[in-house]
């Protein structure tokens, strides 16, 4: 079974029923597993002006976070032992995605002068506080504008992983 399917199945069996309106989205990379589930819409927010509605949704998310905290910590500790990755949590409410915890991982890169100048321009313009923030901003921007392409690429990589796992064992 592929690692991603194993993680999804484990969480499907471990998460309490009723937390989310459907199966949560499980995203993983080398360091982190992110669990993001849709919560039922907030019925009392209907008809409120946008500012009040936003405050009500923020309170609703914080209530869910507080009420599930102990159980989420327990599940995260088990998952961290099992899969050797940190666990991040988040919810989607009325189309808004809110992450409770996320892992920031340093990434080393080598950039030539033209790339460094792009980052320095973003810092000088006040778009970012540092080169590191500027690079993170660039990555988020590329991710937003290439969602379809990145999704297709991830699907292709999953297909490659599946084909590899069906092949003969590697010889060392």
Report the order of strands and helices.
HEEHEEHHH
Outline the biggest β-sheet: 4 strands, mixed
Radius of gyration using CA atoms only: 20 Å
Helix-and-strand structural type: alpha+beta
How many helix segments? 5
Low-confidence runs: none
The tally of beta strands, per DSSP, is 4
| Physical arrangement of strands within the biggest beta sheet | 1-2-3-4
Shape: globular
Q: Look at the structure and give the mean pLDDT.
A: 89
- Give the oligomeric state: single chain
State the helical fraction: 40-55%
Give the N-to-C terminal Cα separation: 22 Å
Q: How much of the residues is beta strand, in percent?
A: 5-15%
Question: Could you walk me through the main structural features you see in this protein, from its secondary elements to its overall organization?
Answer:
The protein is an alpha+beta fold and 172 residues long. Helices cover 54% and strands 13% of the residues. The chain contains 5 helices and 4 strands. A 4-stranded mixed beta sheet has the order 1-2-3-4. The longest helix is centred in the middle third of the chain and has 34 residues. It starts with a helix and ends in a 6-residue tail after the last helix.
Question: What's the short story on this structure?
Answer:
The protein is α+β, with helices and mostly antiparallel strands.
Key terms:
4 strands, 5 helices, four-stranded mixed β-sheet, alpha+beta, 172 residues, single chain, 54% helix
Question: What is this structure's SSE topology?
Answer:
Layout: H1 3-14, E1 25-28, E2 32-38, H2 50-83, E3 86-93, E4 96-99, H3 113-124, H4 131-145, H5 147-166
Parallel strand pairs: 2-3
Antiparallel strand pairs: 1-2, 3-4
Helix pairs in contact: 3-4
